[in-house]
């Protein structure tokens, strides 16, 4: 049993290593966001196969721009519509696991300012969605490159000159930290 597992892992490692980490496909995705008071919140969805928290993404349609395709994926997978940015915030790589192979894909992410969230959307029965603060989203996402793109968008949205939004000063602790007694 253990030999079979080791052999399978070695074969998987050879498939991934032979690709050299270069993506074989480029997809587009959206990072849906909305403002909750003075803080941006981000809409995460679950992937169908593993249930991991991700942002909506998919293959770029032939007759659409990458940004328009990302907006379409956001509607189909998360049930949201809004204003999509024309420039990608960043790109992350991930593995696409198919029946008998694994390949790397690159996903260009576009910001999507959500104007409308539907209760009825095409993939509502196969996905969950969750609005999260930046800190919560960082904890839920398990891809370091995806977190870096989220951080970039968050920095852009919360920059002092972004949309001239007033920012509240950081909250101070009400109670001092507890001291730990040592003997």
What are the SSEs and their pairings?
Elements: H1 2-18, E1 25-36, E2 39-46, E3 53-54, E4 57-59, H2 66-78, E5 80-84, E6 90-97, E7 102-117, E8 129-132, H3 134-140, H4 144-158
Class of secondary structure makeup: alpha+beta
Our measurement of the CA-to-CA distance between the termini, rounded to an integer number of angstroms, reads 51 Å
**How is the biggest beta sheet arranged?**
8 strands, mixed
Number of strands: 8
- Average the pLDDT over all residues and give the rounded result: 83
Morphology: globular
Low-pLDDT regions? 11-19, 164-173
What does this molecule look like?
- With 183 residues, this protein is of the alpha+beta class.
- 28% of the residues lie in helices and 32% in strands.
- The chain has four helices and eight strands.
In short:
By secondary structure, this protein is α+β, with helices and mostly antiparallel strands. Helices cover 28% and strands 32% of the residues.
Top keywords for this entry?
8 strands, 4 helices, 32% strand, 183 residues, alpha+beta, globular
């Amino acid at each position: 049993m253990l030999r079979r597992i080791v052999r399978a892992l070695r074969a998987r490692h050879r498939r991934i290593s032979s690709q050299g980490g270069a993506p074989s496909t480029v997809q587009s995705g959206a990072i849906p966001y909305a403002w909750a008071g003075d803080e941006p919140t981000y809409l995460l969805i679950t992937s169908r196969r593993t249930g991991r928290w991700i942002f909506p993404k998919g293959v770029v349609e032939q007759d659409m721009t990458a940004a328009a395709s990302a907006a379409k994926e956001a509607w189909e997978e998360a049930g949201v519509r809004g204003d999509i940015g024309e420039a990608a915030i960043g790109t992350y790589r991930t593995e696409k696991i198919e029946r008998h192979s694994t390949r790397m894909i690159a996903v260009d992410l576009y910001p999507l300012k959500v104007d409308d969230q539907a209760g009825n959307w095409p993939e509502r029965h196969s996905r969950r969605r969750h609005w999260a603060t930046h800190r919560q989203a960082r904890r839920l996402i398990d891809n370091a490159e995806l977190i870096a793109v989220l951080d970039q968008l968050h920095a852009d949205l919360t920059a002092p000159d972004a949309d001239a939004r007033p920012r509240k000063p950081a909250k101070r602790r009400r109670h001092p930290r507890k001291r730990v007694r040592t003997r």
